[in-house]
Every structure is written in structure tokens, then in C-alpha cells.
Amino acid sequence: MTDYSELFGRRSPVTLPGAPDVMTSPAIAAVGQRWQCQRCGQLVAATDRLPNGDWYCRTCLQLGRLTSRDRLYTIPEPNCFARLMAGGLTWNGQLSSIQRQAARAVQKHALAGERQLLWAVTGAGKTEIVYPALAEALARGWRVAWVSPRVDVCLELAPRLRRDFAGVDQCVLYGGQPVPYRYCQLTICTTHQLLRFNRAFDWIIVDEVDAFPLATSPMLQVAIDRAQKTQGSCLYLTATPGERLQREIKRGKLAVTYLPLRYHGYLLPPIQLKISWRWRQQLQRGRLPAGLQRQFHLWWTARRPFLIFVPHVADLPVIMTVLMKMGLSDGATVHAADPKRQEKVQGFRDGEYRFLLTTTILERGVTFPRVAVAILGADDPVFSTAALVQIAGRVGRLASDPGGQVLAYCHSNARHVHRARAMIARLNRQGRRRGGRPC
Ligand SMILES: [Zn+2]
């Protein structure tokens, strides 16, 4: 029997000969006087025409070019999965009692088909909190997607889910993935990849929902809605929900589960504000303020691994030169377009580097043991309140070392930094009420 599963719940520009129940539509459809792409939903600009007169969609070009000559094909999702024992869960770790309460709430909302948010502080163990609900969903034969706007988050998550749900067939999708698409019960992918799906998933878990570019992209919001079955639902995960989600909670349109404590029961490390006048001018003269130099030396000689966040990619080589002049060797710079990004991050984790100098790309989704953090130019607008809270959340994630410093060096009095400090203080007040210990 021919396998047509490649079209199940997909929005594919290629059909399979003889496939039954195929639904098809033009890839670029006329809407009034204009043309609209049926994959990404964006209107085609009047100038986006090929020499032969065909229209094409520029917005989702990276997923492969669609023109007005193409059609999209789909077979309605049939949930053709073998029945799984225990939902394929092979994880044998334990949840703490506070995690268990949250896990039960998430499961209840999921089974009721409710849109929901798990608002858990950085280091709360939110991935494992979702496990009981995920196991139940898979045991019921649901098709599930675990998605994130950040490819790093997907890449860190995929091996964990492969290990902890070893009984489930999984596929991982992102731009430039080495393995082709395959029909699986569990899909781990970037939010962009959801544009290729049509009413496929019974449940979508959206990890780091407030991260760029999802937070500012209506197209990706629509992609999540359309990749979901009409009866499906979704779960948003984040430590720092944006205003839109917070408004929906207030209006009662979104079920919410709070978890104000880290998995090890310690509170979040506070952000310490350090005023550092004119550090940029000093940098131009090839040096850093004395306080910073002292601090970096302290960490370096104590062999405490540390991350230095800076506002712009252009700052990286300049500051690195200064650090090397100070005698701080064995460090590396890393940024979004760095081809060796994955290797360097892994090298830092393995102790090969003593510090990393980086931009906001490492703000979330990564765990480094014993790390300390400095944010240079924390008052720069590239560091949003959420980004600062996430950066602070890199520190003290392990039970063996729950403390650690988060230092924000500012030239001016910045609203974002104060808001981030206030958010951490508020979460810690809630955490203390649940029995949290100061670190
Ligand atoms: Zn498009």
C-alpha cells in the first residue's frame, strides 16, 4: 500500500499520485483586487511578479517559492498512530510537590481543550511539568507539536524529548534541518515551520511564547491557529508573558497556572544595579571601568564561568580585545549569525571556555552550571524587561549551586532595568509565600 502520510495535515505544494481524500486549493488566491498567499496568509505586493506574469509570495520564500501556478495539497489529519503504553514516557524523574500541583492543572486544562498559559519562573522545570499532560495526550492518540520561535530552544529540547519520550516517534523541523520531514505523532519545530501544516495538531505547546519573532508577528500567531485542529488547543510556556497574554488572563480568555518557585526551591537571584558612567567613552580609549575590570578578574581567577552580555554585535570584538589586554584568556565571542555558535555554546558548557561574550541570543533556553552574569549597557533599549529577567534567569539554575551574581552595568537610569528588578522582586515575594528560600 502506498504511503500518503506525508500529506496528513500538511499544506504541501507537491501531491502524491493516486492519494485519496486530497483537498487542494490555489497557493496564491485572488482576494478582491489583490492576491493572497494561502500558506502564510500575507498579501502579495504588486511588484512581486515573475517575468512570465505569475505572482509569487516573498514573505514565505524561505520555505520554498510559491507562485500563482502552484496548488497546495492536504489530506485531513487521520491520527494514524499506534497505541502507546504510558504515552511513550520513559522519564523516571520525580516532580516536587509544587511542580506536581502545576502539572495537574496543566493536564486538566489540556484535557478540557482550553487555551492556557503556564507562567513559570526561569528554572522552574517547566518542560518536565508538561510531561504528565503530554504523556496523557499521546496515550489518547493526539498528534502534538512542541514549537518555539527560537531554534536554540528546539535544538536543546529535541534530545531531551527523545530521551524522556523514547517510545514516541518524533521529528524535528527548522530551516536547514538535516533530516527530511516525516509523519510523526510528536513534532518539534520552529513556529515558522507551522506554516506548512493545516489543522494537523490536537495540541500545540508553544515554548518561550514571548520570544522574538513570535511576539511581534501576526503571521506566526495565525500559523499556530491554523496548524491546530478546529477542536484543538494550545499551551503557552514562558517566564515573562507579554502584555497581550497578561490582558487575556485578566479578561478570563486564557486559563493560567502560576509557578513562582524554581524547581530546587530557591528564589531567583536579584539583579544588582551598577552605575558605570561613560563606559562607552572609556571603551573608545581601549579600557573598561575599574569596577568591571575588578569583577571580571575576580570571576576569572576564581574559575567561575561567566557570561558578559553586550547590546550590539559590533561591541563584541572591541570588548574582547580589551579583555585579552587585561589578561583574561580562554574566552570566546558568540552572536546570532556566528557559524560556530553551537560549538562555542557547547564548549562553554564543557569548560573549554572560561567566559562567553555575547548578545541577547543566549538570553533563554540555555543552562550553564555555576555561571555568573554581567550585562554591560543594560540600559540599552535592546534589552527589554523580559530579556533582562530571562538573562538573570541563567544564574543559579542547579540545586548544587542555586546562588550567583547578576550585575547590570548602566550608564543611565533605565526604566527597563527597574521594571525587571521589580518583576523579580514580585515573583520572589510570591515564591517566599510558597516556602521559597533566599539564595
Ligand atoms: Zn506566503
State the gist of this model.
The protein is an alpha/beta fold and 439 residues long. The protein is 29% helix and 19% strand. The protein contains eleven helices and 17 strands.
Overall, the morphology is globular
In order across it, which strands form the biggest sheet? Answer: 7-8-6-9-10-5-11
Uncertain spans, ≥5 residues at pLDDT below 50? Answer: none
- So how many helices? 11
Structural class: alpha/beta
Overall average pLDDT: 93
End-to-end C-alpha gap: 61 Å
Radius of gyration over all CA atoms, rounded: 24 Å
Helix content: 25-40%
Order of helices and strands: EEEEHEHEHEEEHEHEEHHEHEHEEHEH
Structural features, described:
The protein has 439 residues and is α/β, with parallel strands linked by helices. It has three domains: 1-76, no CATH class; 85-259, P-loop containing nucleotide triphosphate hydrolases (Rossmann fold, 3-Layer(aba) Sandwich); 272-433, Rossmann fold. It contains eleven helices and 17 strands. It has helices at residues 97-111, 126-139, 151-164, 218-227, 243-250, 279-284, 290-301, 315-325, 341-349, 385-392, 415-433; strands spanning 23-26, 28-31, 34-37, 71-74, 116-120, 144-148, 170-173, 186-190, 201-207, 228-238, 255-259, 272-275, 306-309, 331-334, 355-358, 372-376, 406-410. The strands form four sheets. It has a seven-stranded parallel sheet. A six-stranded parallel sheet has the order 12-17-16-13-15-14, sandwiched between helices. Helix 1 crosses helix 2. It starts with 22 loop residues before the first strand and ends in a 6-residue tail after the last helix. The structure holds zinc ion. Zinc ion is lined by residues 37, 39-40, 42, 57, 59-60, 66.
